[in-house]
Amino acid sequence: MTESLNAARSAAVADVDRLRRRALALARVPPRPGLTGARPAVVFELADEHYAIDARIVLEVHVLRDLTPLAGARPPLFGITYWRGTVLTILDLRERLGVRSRGVTDLSRVVVIDGGRHTFGILADAARDIIDLELATIRPLPEDEAALRDLVRGITDSAVLVMDTDAVLKAGHAAARHDDTTGRGG
C-alpha cells in the first residue's frame, strides 16, 4: 500500500513539474510573424520615465502586495516577495538609472524576469503597456545620459528608454549571487 502511495505521489509531482514548464512556455509572448525588426516589449514606469524591456524575458507583471526589505542590502538588491509559491528577489534599478525614488505605492508593480537559473523581479512605479518595438527606431542615448548607458541601450522617437536585456540579466544574476550568500535564495 505504501509503495502505491509513493508511486502516485511521484507521478503527481512529475505532472505538476510538467504542467509548470508548459505554463511558463505558454506564458511567454512569441514574436509576431511578419514584423521585421519588431519585438514585443513591456513598458513600465520609473520616476516619470518610460522604460521598455524585451517581452520574451518577462514572465509576468505582478502586483506588489507583500515586500520584505533586505536590511543592509546593496543596490540594486531591494527586497523579496512571494510569487507563485517561491521567494522572488526584487531589484530597484532607480539608483543605477539616476532617477529619484518615490517609494513603494499601491501602483507599484514587479516585472518578473526569466533570468534562466534565477528568476527575479524589477520594481516599477507602474506598468504601462505592451508595444511592438521597432528595432530600427531605437536611437543612441544623448551624450549627457552617460549614467544610463550600462542598463539602457537607446531611446525611441516617443521617448521610451529601451533596456539592454543582457545588462538587466547580468544585474539580476549579480543580485542573486549576493542574495544566495546572505542565505535568501532568489
Describe the structure.
It is a single chain. By secondary structure, the protein is of the alpha+beta class. The chain folds into two domains: 1-30; 33-181, Beta Barrel (OB fold (Dihydrolipoamide Acetyltransferase, E2P)). It is 25% helix and 36% strand. It contains three helices and eleven strands. The protein has a six-stranded mixed sheet. The chain has a five-stranded mixed sheet with strand order 9-1-2-11-10. A hairpin with a 2-residue loop joins β1 (38-46) and β2. The longest helix has 26 residues, at 2-27. The radius of gyration is 19 Å and the shape is globular. The model is unreliable at 28-35 and 181-186 (pLDDT under 50).
Please summarize what this structure is.
25% of the residues lie in helices and 36% in strands. It has helices spanning 2-27, 94-97, 165-181; strands at 38-46, 49-54, 58-63, 68-69, 77-83, 86-91, 109-115, 118-124, 126-134, 152-155, 160-163.
List the helices and strands and how they pair.
Blueprint: H1 2-27, E1 38-46, E2 49-54, E3 58-63, E4 68-69, E5 77-83, E6 86-91, H2 94-97, E7 109-115, E8 118-124, E9 126-134, E10 152-155, E11 160-163, H3 165-181
- How would you spell out the order of helices and strands? HEEEEEEHEEEEEH
Main sheet summary: 6 strands, mixed
Q: Would you tell me the structural class of the helices and strands?
A: alpha+beta
Order of strands, main sheet, comes to 3-7-8-6-5-4
